[in-house]
Design a protein that fits this description.
The protein has 301 residues and is of the alpha/beta class. It has 2 domains: 20-84, Helicase, Ruva Protein, domain 3; 103-298, Rossmann fold, CATH 3.40.50.150. Helices cover 38% and strands 19% of the residues. It is built from 12 helices and 9 strands. A 7-stranded mixed sheet has the order 5-4-3-6-7-9-8, sandwiched between helices. Strands 1-2 form a two-stranded antiparallel sheet. α1 runs antiparallel to α2, α1 (20-33) packs parallel to α3 and α5 (114-127) crosses α6. The longest helix is centred in the N-terminal third of the chain and has 15 residues, at 67-81. The radius of gyration is 21 Å and the shape is elongated.
Length: 301
């Protein structure tokens, strides 16, 4: 993590006077002045989480902040001024129906990835049951746990190379009442017991090359997300290549594959998959209309 600034920012939140609405307004003004993206959303979201109320309820919350609340809120806003994401500040993130705890080795699950889950669920529904799913590089467990929660008849497996991330994923599965079988593995190493048994492979792999990170990634991502989950070395398609090369022995003939992609990568990832014996099926957009997932089928060559 980047070091914290030595000089504390000017005080923006005071106890005993301002209502929650006014405290959020003051905080948003400080964030906006510092050039922090979406200052109002950041200020209101952090305060609503602190007070355990919905954002819409802030306008009706007339009580002044206590000294303890004001102090904590000020500390959170100070961290947001350093471009620390609100999810890192809180230590958890919301994703679909889930609340997911985070640590320094877990990527923050983002709304874009919900389109990946939607594509996976569609393939599951079209294939029917039984269905064995493998999530490669699960991180916080967002994709695997969502599938297990929303399609509980599936047998869901997930791999992760980071022991620390795996601890968070296991805790998140328990917290959300789901059954996911986690494996400490680099891609799919050591998963011979699943040979020929996977119906659906899904992954949100590292797809940013290190050389372009400075201009492709916002500070909230570049400075605060774990490098192992972001970067694929100097080749942004390197991890996709590993997936296509290393996973076929696990896949049933006709198995589906859903992979999250970065901007401008759809056709290149589909072409790379085709060279390894995977048939391109489709490209799925996220809610912003940006291509976010590619779908392929393993033909069993």
């Amino acid at each position: 993590m980047p070091p914290k600034q030595q000089e504390p920012p000017a005080r923006t939140v005071r106890a005993g006077g301002a209502s929650a609405r006014e405290a959020a307004r003051q905080a948003a003004a400080s964030l906006e002045q510092a050039g922090v993206p979406e200052p109002v959303a950041s200020a209101e979201f952090l305060l609503s989480e602190l007070l355990c109320i919905g954002r819409a309820e802030l306008t009706l919350y007339e009580k002044p902040l206590t000294e303890k609340q004001a102090s904590l809120y000020e500390a959170w806003i100070s961290r947001r001024l350093q471009r620390e994401p609100v999810q890192r500040i809180l230590g958890y993130a919301y994703f679909r129906n889930l609340v997911l705890d985070l640590n320094e080795d877990t990527l923050i699950p983002r709304p874009d990835t919900e389109s990946v889950v939607d594509a996976a669920l569609d393939l599951i529904d079209s294939r029917g049951y039984p269905c064995v799913v493998l999530d490669v590089g699960t991180g916080s467990g967002a994709i695997a746990i969502s599938i297990a929660q929303e399609r509980p008849r599936c047998e869901v497996h997930a791999t992760e190379v980071s022991v620390l991330a795996l601890e968070a994923a296991r805790a998140n599965a328990d917290r959300n009442g789901t059954d996911v079988r986690f494996h400490h593995a680099d891609v799919v190493s050591g998963l011979g017991f699943l040979q020929g048994g996977i119906d659906l492979l899904v992954s949100n792999p590292p797809y940013v090359d290190e050389t372009s990170a400075s201009h492709r990634l916002a500070p909230e991502v570049r400075k605060w997300d774990p490098p192992v989950a972001l970067y694929s070395g100097t080749d942004e398609l390197a991890f996709f290549g590993r997936i296509f090369a290393e996973t076929p022995f696990l896949l049933k003939d006709g198995a589906g594959v859903v992979l999250e992609i970065g901007d401008g990568q759809a056709e290149r990832v589909l072409d790379l998959g085709e060279k390894h014996g995977f048939s391109p099926l489709a490209v799925r957009d996220d809610l912003a209309g940006t291509p976010r997932a590619v779908l392929l089928r393993w033909e069993g060559h």
